[in-house]
Design brief:
By secondary structure, this protein is mostly helical. Helix content is 80%, strand content 0%.
Length: 130
């Protein structure tokens, strides 16, 4: 794919993500889901689309599905080096921890929170004293 074609695809995906967010805010969860799935067809594993689907699962209180989708979204950010991506990963890990607490899995939730803490410390490059 050429740089221009890739740029056009990225712009299209960004617009679809924004539209999906708007539809979800308006209560059109099915329309939002359809857009996220379309994004995933174009770019499998797209973290924002997976996260959006996780939010939709949370909106209907399906914590098991939300856990799976959040885990998949986080996995797409692992090993990314930009501070923004690490911050996003940390934020999503805290959300995953909340889901795990709701699913009565406190040990797994605490593990997520420790990962989150590690990412934040790494991102800030400041030693953390406990």
């Amino acid at each position: 794919m050429t740089n221009e074609a890739n740029s056009i695809l990225l712009e299209k995906i960004a617009a679809q993500i924004q539209q999906a967010l708007l539809l979800a805010e308006q209560g059109d969860l099915m329309g939002s889901e359809a857009l996220y799935l379309e994004v995933l067809e174009q770019e499998p594993g797209h973290p924002q689309a997976l996260y959006g689907l996780a939010q939709l699962a949370g909106a209907i209180d399906d914590q098991e599905v939300k856990e799976v989708l959040l885990s998949q979204a986080i996995e797409q950010l692992v090993d990314k080096t930009s501070p923004e991506q690490k911050s996003l990963e940390a934020l999503w890990l805290t959300e995953l921890a909340e889901v795990l607490f709701k699913l009565n899995r406190p040990t797994d939730a605490m593990y997520c929170l420790r990962q989150c803490e590690s990412l934040i410390v790494e991102n800030l490059k400041v030693p953390f004293e406990s």
